[in-house]
Prior knowledge:
2 strands, mainly alpha, elongated, two-stranded antiparallel sheet, single chain
Amino acid sequence: xxxxxxxxxxxxxxxxxxxxxxxxxxxxxxxxxxxxxxxxxxxxxxxxxxxxxxxxxxxxxxxxxxxxxxxxxxxxxxxxxxxxxxxxxxxxxxxxxxxxxxxxxxxxxxxxxxx
Length: 115
């Protein structure tokens, strides 16, 4: 049986992954002039795709293929690209927090109806 707690756990994991990605992207910008710095990113599309939910599927299409920190071979960091990815990530985080708010509201409604 599917419960709101299952959904809450999924959204919590999504929020954790999104915040880890935000830290990785911020680190890329902070180290833009550091010699030998290896660009990092987090892609978790495959992980979210396995959750069988339209929201997770949309997020997976937007964020890419795997749920791990991916270090890439040395490549020049483009500040405009990093800022764009940070903005996209911020929008995804907003979507996830709204989803969490909806879950909590749903749970409150169930509790109040049961009184």
